C-alpha cells in the first residue's frame, strides 16, 4: 500500500496531517499547485514499511513556470493600455468646441 501524508501548519491553531490512501502523487501535486495545500511542513510518501520525505520533489513539480522578465515589458503594456483608453474616450477639447464657435470660425 502506498499513500501520502501532507502536514499543514496553521501556526497558533496547530497542525493537521492529511492522509488519504486514495490520493495519488499526481493529485497531491495538483492540490499544492492549486493552493489547496498551503503552509506545508512536510510531505511523506509511505510505501509498505518505508517512509520517504518527498516534500522538495513535490513542491518543485507543483511550482508554476517562471516567466523571464525579458519576455514581459510591463511598462510598454501599461502605455498601450493607457493609449487604448484615450483612443476610446472622446477628446474633451473637441467636445467643448462646436462648429459655430466665433473664435474658431
Give a brief description:
The chain is an alpha+beta fold and 105 residues long.
Verbal overview:
With 105 residues, this protein is an alpha+beta fold. It has a domain at 2-62. The protein has helices at 25-34, 55-62, 74-88, 92-96; strands at residues 2-9, 15-19, 40-47, 50-53. The protein is elongated and about 70 Å long.
Strand order in the largest sheet: 2-1-3-4
Q: Which regions have little confidence, pLDDT < 50, spanning 5+ residues? A: none
Task: Please state the CA-atom Rg, rounded to the nearest Å.
Answer: 28 Å
How many H/I helices?
A: 4
Number of E strands: 4
Which class of secondary structure composition applies to the elements?
alpha+beta
Portion in beta strands: 15-25%
Succession of helices and strands: EEHEEHHH
- Helical content stands at 25-40%
SSE diagram, text form:
Elements: E1 2-9, E2 15-19, H1 25-34, E3 40-47, E4 50-53, H2 55-62, H3 74-88, H4 92-96
Antiparallel strand pairs: 1-2, 1-3, 3-4
Helix pairs in contact: 1-2
Salient structural properties:
4 helices; 105 residues; alpha+beta; elongated; single chain
